Amino acid sequence: MAPSDTIVEPFPNVRINLRQPLWALLLAWLWPGAGHFYQGRHAKGLLFMVCILGTFFFGLALGEGKVVYAGDSGQRVTVTGWRRLIQRWPYFLQAGVGLPAAPALVQTAIVRRGGQPLFGGIMAPPRNDDELAAWNERLNVRFEMGTLFTMIAGLLNVLAMYDAFAGPVATEPGDDKRPPPDKDAGDKQK
Fold first, then answer.
1. Torsion angles phi and psi, residue 117, rounded to 5
2. Spatial CA neighbour of 74 closest among 125, 147, 122
3. Phi/psi of residue 142, each to 5°?
4. Is the separation of the CB atoms in 95 and 71 below 8 Å?
5. Can you give the pLDDT of all 190 residues of the chain as single tens digits?
6. Secondary structure (DSSP) of 13-73
7. CA–CA separation, 87 vs 92, rounded Å?
8. Would you list the DSSP string of 36-49?
9. Measured between alpha carbons, how far is residue 136 from residues 65, 66, 143 in Å?
């Protein structure tokens, strides 16, 4: 065992080798569940992978690939700096999924340079306010729901990343036990 490996013992006789927690954290961010696979926790890794990626891709499909984009085309923006970045704040949450959200960055760079987006425009930013309005009108509530699903997937992966880094949350077994419910207390209330 390497000196940087971390062993967690959440319950007596159960030892989980977290290996190198920072590496597991990075892998868990790049691809949901990969950090757990690295640690040998395959069932949990598969669970996180299926649930998080399923939620992300369902939301992406619901919004017809239009709900995940990193920014704007640069042609319609009148603000700069931090205010420009936060105009598309849902992407910060969507980026919690890692590599599956990365094509949005590539698409934004291509569109800002005046090129045609790849893959039929999936994850490409709208070219102007009218195009964004057309997406919202055509997709209606599916645009908002798709955005919400992809944001939730990113947030869920942040929790999975924490689990890969710190291990499962476990409480110490308590010495004090609750007494059984008093039968007479229920009869007095009636």
1. -65, 155
2. 125
3. -65, -30
4. no
5. 555 676 666 656 666 778 899 999 999 999 999 999 999 999 999 999 999 999 999 999 999 999 999 876 555 555 555 555 556 789 999 999 999 999 999 998 898 888 999 999 999 999 888 998 999 999 999 999 999 999 999 999 999 999 999 988 766 665 556 666 666 655 555 5
6. TEEEE--SHHHHHHHHHHSTTHHHHHTT-HHHHHHHHHHHHHHHHHHHHHTTT-S--SS--
7. 11
8. HHHTT-HHHHHHHH
9. 13, 10, 6
> How big is the chain, counted in residues?
190
**Contact indicator for 24, 35 with CB cutoff of 8 Å:** yes
Nearest to residue 152, comparing CAs of 85, 93, 73?
93
11: β partners: 14
In this prediction the pTM is 0.79
